[in-house]
Design brief:
The protein has helices spanning 15-21, 46-59, 66-85, 92-100, 115-120, 123-133, 149-160, and strands at 25-30, 35-40. It is mainly alpha-helical. It has a two-stranded antiparallel ribbon.
Length: 169
C-alpha cells in the first residue's frame, strides 16, 4: 500500500512534480508496526505540504484506479524479486520469522508479502485498507523544524480538521 500513496490524489495527481517544484524531497518506509511518510521542505513550503498531505488522506481513493494499482503491484513484485527471491539467502529472514512466530501472527510473514498475496490483492482490498487504516484517528502528524507553532496548528486544523475519522480499531 505504501506505493499507492505516491500515485497521486484527486487534487495532486503528480506529487513528484508538485512537491519537487517547491524544493521538497519525500519518501516512505514500512515496517511491521508502522508505515511512515516524510517530506523535507523549505520552511515556507509548510502550507503546501500540509495541503498535499491532507489531500492524500482525504482524496487518495479518487485517484487509485486499476491501472495505477496494477502498475504499483508489479513494482512491488519486482522489489521482492530484487531484494529477496533472486539473491543468495534473500529469503532467510522470511524463513526465520515464519519459525519465530506462530502461523497467523502478523510478524510470521515478511512485510513485502508473498508473490501470491501480491497477485491475489484486489483494488477493493486497497480501498478497504485505506478506509480502515489511513484515517485521522489512526495517524500521527509530526512537524519539526523552523516554523511558527501557532501558524502550523492553524494550518493543520484548516487542512485536516474536516476529514472524517475512520472506524475505531
Amino acid at each position: 500500500f505504501e506505493h499507492m500513496m505516491f500515485a497521486g490524489s484527486q487534487h495532486v495527481p503528480d506529487p513528484d512534480k508538485v512537491l519537487a517544484a517547491f524544493g521538497a524531497s519525500f519518501n516512505g518506509s514500512t515496517d511491521f508496526d508502522r508505515t511512515n511518510y516524510f517530506e523535507t521542505v523549505p520552511a515556507g513550503s509548510l502550507p503546501l505540504v500540509l495541503w498535499a498531505e491532507s489531500d492524500r488522506m482525504g482524496y487518495l481513493l479518487d485517484a487509485v484506479n486499476q491501472e495505477n494499482f496494477d502498475n504499483q503491484r508489479e513494482v512491488v513484485k519486482n522489489e521482492r524479486r530484487q531484494s529477496m527471491d533472486n539473491v543468495p539467502y534473500g529469503t532467510a529472514v522470511e524463513v526465520i520469522f515464519q519459525n519465530l512466530f506462530p502461523k497467523g501472527h502478523p510478524y510470521s510473514w515478511h512485510i513485502i508479502g508473498s508473490m501470491q498475496d501480491l497477485e491475489n490483492a484486489t483494488l477493493d482490498d486497497v480501498h478497504q485498507f485505506f478506509r480502515t487504516f489511513y484515517t485521522p484517528n489512526n495517524c500521527v502528524l509530526t512537524i519539526a523544524g523552523e516554523f511558527d507553532n501557532a501558524e502550523a496548528r492553524k494550518l493543520v486544523e484548516e487542512y485536516f480538521g474536516s476529514l472524517p475519522p475512520g472506524p475505531p480499531l
